[in-house]
Amino acid sequence: MFADVAQVIEGTGVFIMAIGLGILLVRYVYDVLRRRTGSYQRVRVNLGRVILLGLEILIVGDIIRSIIVDTSVESVLVLGLIVVIRTVLSFALEVEISGSWPWQTRPAADEAAGKSPS
């Protein structure tokens, strides 16, 4: 039963990433055809957000599968490795999206533009 729940959750994460990519690509093509500026940057940021959401959902599925379904030391170690890898990916994507390190008080883009923090 819990294996099925984990599989549905993981499928949901993949579905969100696939549908998000499709929507973003359609929107990007529309923006390019309308010659809107900044289309590429917007699609990069939004794609990063879609991937982050999908990764978070996949981690939930992995936790359920490793802790509840397959309780062994090996599965917990594999889960730990998966979580570390996905956390590093999430961190890198967040830095890419925001343009600054999490410990910086202002995003790098705001500093370059001379904007003050809100």
Structural commentary:
There is one protein chain. With 118 residues, the protein is an all-alpha fold. The chain has one domain (2-113). The chain contains four helices and no strands. It has helices spanning 2-33, 39-69, 73-98, 108-113. Helix 1 (2-33) runs antiparallel to helix 2 and helix 2 packs antiparallel against helix 3. The longest helix has 32 residues, at 2-33.
Structural class: mainly alpha
Name the beta content range.
under 5%
**In which range does the helix fraction lie?**
over 70%
Largest sheet: none
Distance between the termini: 48 Å
Mean pLDDT: 82
Q: Which value, in Å, is the CA radius of gyration?
A: 18 Å
- The DSSP helix count reads 4
Uncertain spans:
none
Provide the domain count: 1
What global shape is seen? flat
Q: What is the strand tally?
A: 0
Q: Note the run of SSEs as H and E.
A: HHHH
